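Entry for the shared binder. Reason: the reviewer on the internal report wants the predicted structure included alongside the sequence.
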Amino acid sequence: MHATLRRRALTLAPCLALAACGPAPQTAPAPVLDLALAARVEEPFATLAARVPLEPDQDFRVEELGRSELTSHHVGAIRTGEAVHRHDRHDQLVVLVRGRGTMRVGEEVRPVEQGSILFLPRGVPHAFTNGGVEPAIAYLVYAPPYDGKDRVEVGEKAP
């Protein structure tokens, strides 16, 4: 093959290979929490942990993000685990934003990981145990809005 043709073939080869593969894959946008409440909250999941920094001796922290007439929205951090407890007047929805571990619901213990969504009806004993080294972060929704008083401990920390 002539040297000029060989150079052109070598120059075109990567272009042809890329064309055969199709367009470059699009990256998915990062997950975002978007609460259309009176005071709008828009925040990437990746930065929610900054809202609940744990002190060295602190194992658990919850901060309210906002509320509506029927629900309250919170972000929580757990370093190791929480005691088995129930809420007698509140249903709870939990979205594990970061981390992994186990969740006790009633008498059953099941594995959970980032992206897990759990619904905990009022009166059902439950507890999360962190299986990672970093604090686990969860988005929490209570219905009706949480009053800060409806937490009845019913046991030791979950296994």
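Summary line for the report: The chain has a mean pLDDT of 88.
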